[in-house]
Amino acid sequence: MKFPKPHSLKQVAELIDCNYVGDSNFPVLGINEIHVVQPGDIVFVDHPKYYDKALNSAATIILINKEVECPEGKALLISDDPFRDFNKISNHFKPFNASSNQVSESAIIGEGTIVQPNCFIGNYVVIGKNCVIHSNVSIYDDAIIGDNVTIHSGAVLGANAFYYKKRPEGFDRLLSSGRVVLEDHVDIGANCTIDRGVTGDTTIKKGTKIDNLVQVGHDTVIGEKCLIASQVGIAGCVIIEDEVTIWGQVGITSGITIGSKAIISAKAGVSKSLEGGKSYFGIPADDFRSKYKEIASIKKIPEILDLLKKL
């Protein structure tokens, strides 16, 4: 998320009431998660395991809970609770803005687009030309939808990321200030849920078709011309490359990449990145050849046990 205008390191430090290391006029341009940071962005880190990753990332301002040596060309914000202060910054620059109409006056809807009754379209949503938005669809603030998109009844675009920090008193939610972006010729089935990015975009690219009852997590990027069948669950920060086919009830863990033209059979559990151009099934998912060898080996276990008894 970029700020409306650049701020200084001192201004941001005063906003969250913390100390800083660096030039007081050091430019701060935005705030982002580590996988999407750019120069000028703030990234937060609150665990020693990830200090080096954050300090060496593209971010030039690190919101951190320990005084460490500041890398050259960067600045530090020293906080006793970076998670809390990341939320403070997000809420300051992107506060929740309640709607007063079913279709916001700030929404832009393209020529030839049909919006059926009982839809909710939030603030600053942009919908392209010749789309069909069926009844009872909810499109939260800031979503961007291309041309010739179809969204079926009950779909929700832009709900919060499922991202929490455990506290003694309960779970603290990381605020979501990103967007959902659908490119041209995307179809979204009934009762799908597509979460907005935490600070970046959850993106579904041109020509992808998604069946009913599919969940897409925050900051996930789905490539062009993918097919995703019913009841697939995709966690946050997943990269699905072009022309991937995912059959029903597949579960995909966070932060992995599925290569172009991969095919994942129904009910597979994907716990690691998968190479493109292959077919996969099973839990954990593996390519057909390896999985069938594994099954064949398992079937031989009784025979092996019988042989061992005879020894």
Query: What percentage of residues falls in helices of 4 or more residues?
Result: 10-25%
CATH topology-level fold name of the largest domain:
UDP N-Acetylglucosamine Acyltransferase, domain 1
Shape: flat
Number of domains: 2
CATH superfamily of the largest domain: Hexapeptide repeat proteins
Mean pLDDT: 95
How many angstroms separate the termini?
A: 68 Å
Outline the structure in words:
The chain is an alpha/beta fold and 311 residues long. It has helices spanning 9-16, 51-55, 82-93, 288-299, 301-310; strands spanning 2-8, 19-21, 27-31, 41-45, 61-64, 75-78, 108-109, 114-115, 120-121, 126-127, 132-133, 138-139, 144-145, 150-151, 156-159, 164-167, 170-173, 179-182, 187-188, 193-195, 201-204, 209-210, 215-216, 221-222, 227-228, 233-234, 239-240, 245-246, 251-252, 257-258, 263-264, 269-270, 279-281, 286-287. The strands form five sheets. Strands 8-11-14-19-22-25-28-31-33-34 form a ten-stranded mixed beta sheet. Strands 7-10-13-18-21-24-27-30 form an eight-stranded parallel beta sheet, with no helix packed on it.
Describe, in short, the structure shown.
It contains five helices and 34 strands. It is α/β, with parallel strands linked by helices and 311 residues long. It has two domains: 2-93, 3-Layer(aba) Sandwich (Udp-n-acetylmuramoylalanyl-d-glutamate--2,6- Diaminopimelate Ligase, Chain: A, domain 1); 108-291, 3 Solenoid (UDP N-Acetylglucosamine Acyltransferase, domain 1), CATH 2.160.10.
